[in-house]
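User: For my dataset I need records formatted as: sequence, then structure tokens, nothing else. Please produce one.
Assistant:
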Amino acid sequence: QVQLVESGGGLVQAGGSLRLSCAASGRTFSNYAVGWFRQAPGKEREFVAAIKWSGSSTAYADSVKGRFTISRDNAKNTVYLQMNSLKPEDTAVYYCAKDRNPLRVAVATRTADFGSWGQGTQVTVSS
């Protein structure tokens, strides 16, 4: 079973950058899309970005388009989320998760499409 571990969170000033990593165990990681989600205090978990198993397609929430970039290195079993021009409203716990279905044609974006959630990494953006 694939297990995911997030890292790279921290405290940053508004306008700064962070790169999150999602490291996976398991030989079949490259068959699955991976998504990043976030949850702020008192709010529901929301979709941030996702990347197809092949890396050929990506999807982003409107709130992060043009600022965040998702990528993957299947040789390293790792997915990255580069976050630039960070805003205080980006403050949340960030989670990565694996698509429940392998080799999906379209990029999944619904929370229910993902499983094997990591433990999360805190991102705090100060104003």
